Amino acid sequence: MALRCCIRNETSLEQSFITTAQGARLEGDEAIEYIRTRVTEKFQQRSTLCTTIDKDESSGAMAPFSQREWERAEKRVPSSTSTGPDGIPIRLIKTLGPKSK
């Protein structure tokens, strides 16, 4: 997923728009929905590649985390961190705030 983020200026974390790999410019809720769709697609692709976890192994699986836990973890990640496998920069997630979660 090629996704570019345009920030209004270097000292502001205010999201202005994103540009998709196809060159479409998206803003506001349209951009958020695009990101949500792309992330969902990525996780669906990933889940089809993963093997089924044995029931005995799943007992040690990680429990769901709260919004507070997410926020604490998010604050610890520097905005300059490179993107992960989903291709979405942490700076964009932090900029969009709770709507991006």
Overview of the molecule:
- Residues 55-101 are annotated as: Disordered.
- The protein has helices at residues 28-49, 55-58, 67-76, 90-96, and strands spanning 4-7, 15-19, 25-26.
- The protein has 101 residues and is of the alpha+beta class.
- The protein has one domain.
- It has a three-stranded antiparallel β-sheet with strand order 1-2-3.
- A hairpin with a 5-residue loop joins strand 2 and strand 3.
Total number of distinct structural domains: 1
The rounded Rg comes to: 16 Å
Averaged pLDDT: 74
**Helical proportion?**
40-55%
SSE class: alpha+beta
- Shape category: globular
The proportion of strand residues reads 5-15%
Q: Walk across the major sheet and give the strand order.
A: 1-2-3
**Number of helical segments?**
4
List keywords for this structure.
alpha+beta, Putative tick transposon, 101 residues, three-stranded antiparallel beta sheet, single chain, globular
Write the SSE topology.
Elements: E1 4-7, E2 15-19, E3 25-26, H1 28-49, H2 55-58, H3 67-76, H4 90-96
Antiparallel strand pairs: 1-2, 2-3
Organism: Rhipicephalus microplus
Protein name: Putative tick transposon
Short description:
It is built from 4 helices and 3 strands, in the order βββαααα.
